[in-house]
Amino acid sequence: MAEGARLLSEYGAQALHREFESLPVRSQKHAVLPGGQAPPGRYVQKVAVITSIEGQVKRKDRVSVSLDGAFWIGMSLDAFADLGLREGMTVTAARKREVESRVSDAAAFEAALMLIGYRDRSRQELLDRLARKDFSPEACESAVARLEQMGYVNDADFAEQLIERHAGRGKSRRAVAFELRKAGVEQDTADEALEAHYPEEDLHQVAFAWARTRHKPGDEKAAERLRRQLASRGFSYDIIRAVLEELDELHDAGPS
After folding, report:
1. Which helix (H) or strand (E) holds 72?
2. Sequence ranges of the domains in the chain
């Protein structure tokens, strides 16, 4: 007994807790700590029993699992099948944590699938949205990594699609670069995609193509509005001035 007290003092309750939990379930029921000391009272019952597994009324694709007569956790049918749970099964504290972690990972993955079902998203966008749903950082990272492995999340493809969409609306490289930063695309990935779509010498051509159908010769108010619109799309003052001058010259020259 004295030896058990010494160990408890020397290593602390947490160390004894870990040693006790490492024992097989059957051994825990009869465990004796070093020195002949019985485990502290709170460690005597280390095993819970799954007392019921019931389908959820409102969500037919989910089940509710109870431990020792009290609700424990809800999960999808897929997660339930993967975990191999059944009524009467004993659950140790370690197994309980494992199940909860795997259920959280599965739920985060399902949520991520729904999010990309609405539209493509960058890696960081997905992580942020999942975190807002109160999934743990580990569950968020696991879900996004799994989607990346499956090819459903790819920041290079996302950047290319975003650039094509905004370029079609007449936005400049600078404005699209801001959209990529806002979406959390890494700088190297964004720069590579931008370089493919926006060589520096094409900036004037992009601005000119967008402004040409909106140009109203001789209407100063319309010209000022066009300047503001081009500026809001990220074009510099020099490019805006050159584009408007070219449009005026084309109008003055008349049909070719």
Report:
1. strand 70-76
2. 1-45, 104-153, 154-198, 200-256
Identify the H or E element spanning 253. helix 237-253
Q: In the numeric block, which tokens belong to residue 190?
A: 């964004």
Same fold, 154-198 and 200-256: yes
pLDDT recorded at residue 43: 44
CATH (residue range 200-256)? 1.10.10
Considering the four listed CATH numbers 3.40.50.920, 2.40.128.110, 1.10.10.10, 3.30.420.480, the one that applies to the domain covering 104-153 is 1.10.10.10
Residue 46 CA, chain-centre distance (Å), reads: 35
For residue 154, report the phi and psi dihedrals to the nearest 5 degrees. -150, 110
Q: Is 1.10.3470 the CATH classification of the domain at 154-198?
A: no
Does 181 score more than 80 pLDDT? yes
In Å, what is the CA distance from 218 to each residue of 57, 215, 222, 225? 69, 9, 9, 13
What is the pLDDT, as a whole number, of residue 170? 74
Long-range pairs for 121-124 at CB < 8 Å and ≥24 separation? Answer: 121/153, 121/158, 121/183, 122/153, 122/155, 122/158, 122/159, 122/183, 122/184, 122/185, 123/148, 123/153, 123/155, 123/184, 124/183, 124/184, 124/185
Residue 55 has a pLDDT of 92
Give the model confidence (pLDDT) of 232-253 as tens digits: 887 888 888 888 888 877 766 6
pLDDT tens digits for range 202-232: 677 778 877 877 877 777 888 888 888 888 8
Phi, psi (5° rounding) for residue 216? -125, 95
Helix (H/G/I), strand (E/B), else coil: 254: coil
39 to 29, 34, 60, 104, 159: CA distances (angstroms): 10, 10, 43, 32, 58
